[in-house]
Amino acid sequence: MDRRSFIKKAGLGAGGVVAASTLAAPAIAQSTKEMVIVSTWPRDFPGLGIPAQRLAARITELTEGRITTQYFAAGERVGAFDSFDEVASGNAQAYIGADYYWKGKHPGWAAFTAIPFGLTYTEMDAWIRYAGGQELWDELAGEFGLKNLAMGNTGVQMGGWFNKEINTADDLKGLKMRIPGLGGDVMAKLGASPVSLPGGQIYENLVSGAVDATEWVGPYNDYFMKFYEAAKYYYWPGMHEPGSQLAIGMNKAFWDGLSKTDQEIIKAACAEENGGTMAETNANNGAYLDKLINEHGVQLREFSDEIYDAFGEASQEVLQEAMDHDPLSKKIFESVVAARKDIGSWMAISDVAYSQKRNRFLGIPS
């Protein structure tokens, strides 16, 4: 399925959200609230942009027009990385993005997207919903006048696109790599130069040679970015984002002004999209990986154990530095580490163990 046919099937062309926002016209006569949503991703972009648009449309639909959403993709109202300030200031009511973009404001934000050697989607969902994650998210977000909810996940990400083979950890030295969050800090520990770029600027920087490598998401998302035109080595698995949580961050005054019913509707819409985005990603990654390899000559490479051990040692240093920032950071990251142990130990003898034994018997390559 190409990008055009996917968007047509999803019913989300450039006017998709506008059309959805006009649903339930009779309800518009009632008291309504406008919800301006800014995003960190391009419009109509499969895997990230489309789920954001889909959520915006769904909120208006489920509230029967009591909340009318107006969606702006990255650059249409503000720049991708200006979304946080736009909402915290009250100029817009919500952003949709990845909260590790804001780690410069407080390192704790990184925990609510992904940390190196952190939580998978299943573990992240369990932590946020039932192991204290949402309460900690509320505490951090509240300090910035925000209310945040999970609204999507992309699962274990690929390690990235490189214009040369990475055979040892030394091969990372001097490498200019687009990689945000704490994953970028890990790469810096290993001698690389991390660069933070919004999605819409990665391709041009990779093609021009301004960066030597980039991570993005996975085959389904990456295919449409055409990174294969500039880098042929595609590495797995990514240590930096094992379960990348996407978020909607709402201005807290706006959130507090909603009825309890509409708050619960937004929570339900986010939960629906959270699971839906992950399912959509898993359903498409295998097919798009085949297309990258067979149609575009991409060379799939696995990071060696030696490189992964270097990632692990650097990630421990980065995590400790983040924990030492302030008491709230310590509380957040200690909670993540506890979830990694408690929930992860169960995953090890359930999902992970089953998949390994099933795939061995069926001859599914790992």
Q: What is the compact description of this entry?
A:
One of its GO terms (molecular function) is metal ion binding. The chain is an alpha/beta fold and 366 residues long.
Outline the structure in words:
With 366 residues, this protein is an alpha/beta fold. It is built from 14 helices and eleven strands. The chain has helices spanning 3-10, 16-21, 49-62, 83-88, 121-130, 133-142, 181-189, 202-208, 219-223, 252-256, 260-296, 305-323, 327-349, 351-362; strands at residues 33-39, 67-72, 94-97, 146-153, 160-162, 176-178, 193-195, 213-214, 233-236, 245-251, 299-302. The chain is 47% helix and 14% strand. Helix 3 packs antiparallel against helix 11, helix 6 runs antiparallel to helix 13 and helix 13 crosses helix 14 (351-362). The longest helix is centred in the C-terminal third of the chain and has 37 residues, at 260-296. A six-stranded mixed beta sheet has the order 7-6-8-5-9-11. The protein has a domain at 15-154 and 243-284: D-Maltodextrin-Binding Protein, domain 2 (3-Layer(aba) Sandwich), CATH 3.40.190. Mean pLDDT is 93; it is low at 1-29. Helix 7 links the parallel strand 6 (176-178) and strand 7 (193-195).
Distance between the termini: 25 Å
Specify the CATH class of the domain at 15-154 and 243-284. Answer: Alpha Beta
Beta content: 5-15%
Helix content estimate: 40-55%
Fold topology:
Layout: H1 3-10, H2 16-21, E1 33-39, H3 49-62, E2 67-72, H4 83-88, E3 94-97, H5 121-130, H6 133-142, E4 146-153, E5 160-162, E6 176-178, H7 181-189, E7 193-195, H8 202-208, E8 213-214, H9 219-223, E9 233-236, E10 245-251, H10 252-256, H11 260-296, E11 299-302, H12 305-323, H13 327-349, H14 351-362
Parallel strand pairs: 1-2, 1-3, 6-7, 6-8, 9-11
Antiparallel strand pairs: 3-10, 4-10, 5-8, 5-9
